[in-house]
Amino acid sequence: MTTPPDAIAALDEADPLAPMRALFDLPEGLVYLDGNSLGVLPRGVSERVARVINDEWRQGLISSWGGGWIDLPTSVGAAIARLIGATSEEVVVGDSTSVNLFKCLAAALRLRPERRVILTEADNFPTDNYISQGLSDLLGGYQIRYVAAGDDPAAALGDDVAVLSLTHVNYRTAAVHDMQRMTAAAHDVGALAVWDMSHSTGALPIDLNLAGADFAVGCTYKYLNGGPGAPAFCFAAQSLLDEVRQPLSGWMGHMDPFAFGPDYEPAPAARRFLCGTPQILSLGALSAALELWTEVDMVAVRRKSLALSDLFIGLVDEFAEEHGLEIVTPRQHEQRGSHVSIRAANGHAVMRALAERGVIGDFRAPDLMRFGFTPLYTSFTDIWRAAMALRDVFESRAWHDERFAQRLRVT
């Protein structure tokens, strides 16, 4: 591969976030553009997990619960709260995004008992819609109303809608909803707004309280780099905390779990959204990963994210038409998240061929190649190399190799 032009090197030299790259344990020579699925290991996480295992578990044993373990769901939640425009009392960490969405949707429906419609999008992340379907089946008598891709969900709101359930950044196209406008539209008809922040937390400046959001959930293993299967966060607005009840009333969400009383009494603040015993090893890793965010300016992160994706789009535009490629991600900055999706008829084989060239993205059926831009460790040189490798895969027709024909189980 040829040397990147001087203009690319100049962008990296002028990048104020460039020093952050050294805080991550990136494999040598790899161009990793899949941080929107699984973030890179931050330096310091391995040591923190080793300390949890060797000191706190092996030596401290049961005493480590009183030495800080029991508070990890709320202390880690407070670290995330700073990144999403929430107070520490409004955010807690535990369980998965899917489980937390179930809790929030159920809690919201309970607050609007006279309404029977959940409004969402047909191209929402599938697990979100599956959870809505399962909850509807469980409770009975609810309707899920789907808005077609590209249509405005606000136009489908009515006085029968209990909950508007949306993902802030679409996992397929990276299109961004105007959270403040959508939430206000829901409130105008008396509905509540539940947001999935999985593809925006750590990538975009977010202010849930300014937007008036009622509930929000999000994973922590993408842009927050919490590690595979890291526990998710759950947000509930302060104005609702005194009255809201979630259905998974496990002991860690109890006001006094070690009183071992016979009846459930919800804990104060967002802690009532906890359920079972905290995942200590994962929370330890996530806690360490979040330490590097304390001095990060999210405005600078967003500025670099847009610059990275602008560069990539511009480079791909040079050969897209020739090879039948369609960039489906919005080009307008205010409408774009932090990944770029390209429609290609043989996208899965192309991504496998690209991986052999040391460039990692991912594929979403039926035909989308996704490239994620994680500003804390992605360089402009990475983007140039990725675009040149992608061009070479098409021009050499490398994706025709029969090795790439078989669909992988995980894409």
Characterization of the model:
The chain has 411 residues and is α/β, with parallel strands linked by helices. It has 2 domains: 6-32 and 297-404, Aspartate Aminotransferase, domain 1 (Alpha-Beta Complex), CATH 3.90.1150.10; 47-293, 3-Layer(aba) Sandwich (Aspartate Aminotransferase, domain 2), CATH 3.40.640. It has 12 helices and 13 strands. A 7-stranded mixed β-sheet has the order 2-8-7-6-5-3-4, sandwiched between helices.
In short:
This protein has 411 residues and is α/β, with parallel strands linked by helices. Helix content is 34%, strand content 13%.
Element order: H for helix, E for strand: HEHHHEHEHEEHEHEEHHEEHEEEH
**Mean of pLDDT:** 96
Residue ranges: pLDDT <50 for 5 or more in a row?
none
The largest beta-sheet arranges its strands as 2-8-7-6-5-3-4
User: What is the CATH top level name of the largest domain?
Assistant: Alpha Beta
Largest sheet: 7 strands, mixed
Residues in β-strands, percent: 5-15%
Q: What structural class do you assign from the helix and strand content?
A: alpha/beta
Tell me the name of the CATH homologous superfamily of the largest domain: Type I PLP-dependent aspartate aminotransferase-like (Major domain)
Number of separate structural domains: 2
CATH architecture of the largest domain: 3-Layer(aba) Sandwich
State the end-to-end CA separation: 26 Å
Tally of separate helices: 12
User: Level of helix content?
Assistant: 25-40%
